[in-house]
Design a protein that fits this description.
With 312 residues, the protein is an alpha/beta fold. It is built from twelve helices and eight strands. The protein has a single domain, classed as Rossmann fold (3-Layer(aba) Sandwich), CATH 3.40.50. Helix 4 packs parallel to helix 5, helix 5 packs parallel to helix 6 and helix 5 crosses helix 12.
């Protein structure tokens, strides 16, 4: 990127008129900032939220600032695969195409909890739900205009690894280690999706992004006391705002020079804050063998198969 591009701001988002975006976790933090920015540029935004009442309040908040904003709110609990299927069915019934899917929602460092289908909660919500959602909406994205899947990972992916022999944490569970695993899975998935889309000649781009260190309720509402105190209080003065933290995923979702397989993060020291730039994926996350193995496991655990197709 040039120096001018490194100073990229939300004001430089191209016109989104006629584009339809789905954003998971859109009622707070990075998701809210992303929804607000895309709506401001004329896009139709589907807010995928676990709490519909909060989603409706978010819509009211945005439309108070932007009376002409085109917003929809739909219930989605990513930790429950039945909810993922129901959400996808509703979107498919109302839309013939999608242009952007931002896999943004997440949970951080809860006590060991199992999802409705028996998966560890962070792996279920942060990875498996997004894997299934992407697969279920892929044909709508294939019909979109310059379509993209943006998967939000974290700096923590560089500390993560996949415990294929104990994905549920039954043999041993650490809240932060399993959070790091889920963010590593996001990174592996985004890169493997890119490989498969490219091999199929699909027009859909798979792009990864991370927000650096950003103050959101992911940290302040973390149920583990030490995590909440460290990230929500002690280090909070060092964090950037959600509007700033959302810039990498907004760049990934809209900038004209973004290529499938790119990883976008902040340009400041340690990638903790700053304007969007291309950053390095860890070697472990880029490993093709790990990508294939995670894909096969994810298909088995979600019972979702991707239908890749080239443009007609």
């Amino acid at each position: 990127m040039t120096k001018q591009q490194q100073r990229w701001t939300a004001d430089q988002i191209p016109d989104q008129t006629g584009r339809v975006s789905v954003i998971t976790g859109a009622n707070s933090g990075l998701g809210l900032a992303t929804a607000r920015a895309l709506a401001r540029k004329g896009g139709r935004v589907i807010l995928a939220v676990r709490d519909e009442d909060r989603g409706r309040r978010t819509v009211a908040e945005i439309t108070a600032e932007q009376p002409h904003a085109q917003l929809e709110t739909r219930r989605l609990d990513l930790a429950d695969l039945d909810s993922v299927h129901a959400f996808a069915d509703r979107v498919r019934s109302d839309h013939r195409r999608l242009d952007v899917l931002v896999n943004n929602a997440g949970v951080m460092a809860p006590p060991r909890t199992l999802s409705a289908q028996g998966h560890e909660l962070q792996f279920a919500c942060n990875h498996l739900g997004h894997f299934a959602l992407t697969g279920l909406l892929l044909d709508l994205l294939g019909a979109g205009r310059e379509p993209r899947v943006v998967t939000v990972s974290s700096l923590n992916h560089r500390q993560g690894r996949l415990r294929f022999d104990d994905l549920t944490g039954e043999r041993g569970y650490s809240p932060m280690a399993f959070y790091n695993q889920s963010k590593f899975a996001n990174a592996v998935f985004g890169r493997e999706l890119h490989r498969r889309l490219a091999e199929a000649g699909s027009p859909v781009r798979s792009v990864l992004a991370h927000p650096g260190y950003t103050s959101t309720n992911l940290q302040t509402s973390a149920p583990v006391g030490l995590v909440r105190v460290l990230y929500g209080r002690v280090l909070a003065p060092l964090a950037q705002s959600p509007d700033r933290g959302a810039l990498p995923q907004l760049y990934a979702a809209t900038a004209t020079d973004v290529a499938s397989g790119d990883f976008i993060g902040p340009d400041g020291r340690g990638e903790l804050r700053g304007a969007p730039k291309r950053v390095r994926l860890s070697d472990a996350a880029a490993d093709a063998g790990t990508g294939r193995r995670l894909w096969e496991v994810s298909e088995r655990l979600t019972d979702v198969r991707f239908a890749f197709s080239a443009p007609v």
